[in-house]
Amino acid sequence: MSVGFFMLILQAFYVNVKVMKSIFKGIVLVVSFLGAMYLMQQVPWREMLKLDKAKDATDEKIGELLWDFIKSSEKEISDTLVVKTVDSIFVQVCESNFINPEQYQIHIVENSEVNAFAIPGDRIIIHSGLISDCKNESEFTGVLSHELAHLELKHVTKKLVKEFGFAVLVEMTAGGGGKIIKEVLKVLSSTAYDRSLEEEADLKAIEYMSSAGFDPKEFGNFMYRLADADRSDASIMEWLSTHPDSKERAEYIIKNTPSKIGRKIFITQSDWDLMVNRMEIN
Predict the structure, then answer these.
(1) Residue 170 sits in which domain range?
(2) CB atoms within 10 A of CB 233
(3) Model-level pTM?
(4) Count of structural domains within the chain
(5) Which residue, of 5, 42, 246, 266, is most buried by count of CB atoms within 10 Å of its CB?
């Protein structure tokens, strides 16, 4: 047998091996695909979608109950200048970050405590004391963006489920939750989120503000100022109780602020001061 003929046989064998490997890989891919399709069919998607809808409906109902409870004891501010100023900032933040502002409701209430908090049903409660304490639009936008982040990242629901359990929340919406409503509101307005959730919301707030043309460093300055505030001031204590690491978070916010921001002025300092004075007079 000649060497050339022997080489031809080896080449043919090598080609056949390559072909067999390709066929085998193809068979493995087909089997893997069919296996994945089978597993996907075993997932109860309809039940999961129903559960998501049930959670959304529960969130909406809880939000309504909490807001009804709040407005039964606190007056909502309806002054046109105040409402339009807050709304214009919120819309700017949302639209700059591809968020639909129409899905959210902002409520400003007369309360001297420096606080703002998110509740289920895509609602944000803002105390007049917070607006009065903010020196400019960017300080306020930082807090507003932070609360928006909690809602966008589903932190509010996570916190409530962790604290109370989903079954208790459902029971609350069924009319058996007078006491629970008060407890839920206390948890949302007066207790801090887990540190990891707060950091996540801070980072998202920095992103929101930067995209919208606000300076996140002003948000950090706000946190610094409150951390160093007089602890005997009752209006400040509410904020400190829900934001126990304000100084560390201020440093974190400033450190993570982009070096270049397309800074824009939406509300001049004089207009901001006018709005605050108008709110305090009314």
Answers:
(1) 53-281
(2) 12
(3) 0.78
(4) 1
(5) 246
